[in-house]
């Protein structure tokens, strides 16, 4: 008889954190260099456009979504959370600038549509479905995937 708790055999190894498991799984459908390159540009563009569209509906809505996202990220990695807070600040500043110029909604709609078209082109090239078709949390993991590539390039650990 084993002393390990029920289900422990299905648990990730103790050294593998949930964030690592999520990024590994996400990475399985993002291995083609063209698809990866598309995601490096399209994911931040989608984040900007979604921030703009939600802000246009109501600024409180985008702030609530960003706050909920930060809670999710904080449960995964404090370093990623800090970077995502910085990214959210930049997104909000860009959205404010677009709002001031009166172009927030049209620019956000165009960027949203074009970025998603490129995302699906990337997945067509890859030959695999987007990860969020399996689990919606991968919509929040996508930005971390891009960020993890930056961290790896700079030799940083998340």
In brief, what are we looking at here?
The protein is mainly α. Helix content is 74%, strand content 0%. It has one domain.
Mean pLDDT: 92
Q: Radius of gyration from the CA trace?
A: 17 Å
- Sketch the topology as an H/E string, one letter per element: HHHHHH
What is the total number of structural domains? 1
- The outline comes out as globular
Percent helix among the residues? over 70%
The major pleated sheet works out as:
none
Class based on secondary structure composition and strand pairing? mainly alpha
Low-pLDDT ranges? 1-8
Q: What distance lies between the first and last C-alpha atoms, to the nearest angstrom?
A: 37 Å
Per DSSP, the total helix count is 6
Q: Please, could you describe this protein's structure?
A:
Helix 2 crosses helix 4 (78-100) and helix 3 (59-76) packs antiparallel against helix 4 (78-100). Helices cover 74% and strands 0% of the residues. The protein has one domain (18-25, 32-154). It is globular, with a radius of gyration of 17 Å. It contains six helices and no strands. It is an all-alpha fold. Residues 1-8 have low confidence and may be disordered.
Tag the structure with descriptive keywords:
158 residues, mainly alpha, 6 helices, 74% helix
Secondary structure layout:
Elements: H1 18-28, H2 33-57, H3 59-76, H4 78-100, H5 104-126, H6 138-154
Helix pairs in contact: 1-6, 2-3, 2-4, 2-5, 3-4
């Amino acid at each position: 008889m084993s002393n390990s708790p029920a289900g422990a055999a299905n648990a990730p190894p103790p050294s593998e954190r949930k964030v690592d498991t999520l990024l590994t799984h996400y990475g399985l459908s993002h291995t083609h260099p063209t698809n990866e390159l598309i995601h490096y540009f399209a994911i931040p563009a989608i984040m900007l456009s979604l921030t703009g569209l939600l802000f246009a509906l109501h600024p409180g809505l985008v702030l609530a979504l960003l706050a909920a996202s930060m809670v999710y990220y904080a449960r995964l990695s404090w370093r990623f959370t800090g970077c995502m807070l910085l990214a959210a600040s930049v997104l909000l500043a860009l959205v404010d600038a677009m709002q001031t110029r009166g172009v927030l909604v049209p620019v956000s709609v165009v960027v949203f549509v074009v970025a998603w078209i490129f995302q699906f082109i990337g997945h067509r090239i890859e030959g695999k479905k987007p990860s969020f078709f399996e689990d919606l949390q991968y919509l929040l993991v996508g930005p971390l995937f891009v960020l993890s590539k930056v961290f790896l390039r700079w030799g940083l650990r998340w």
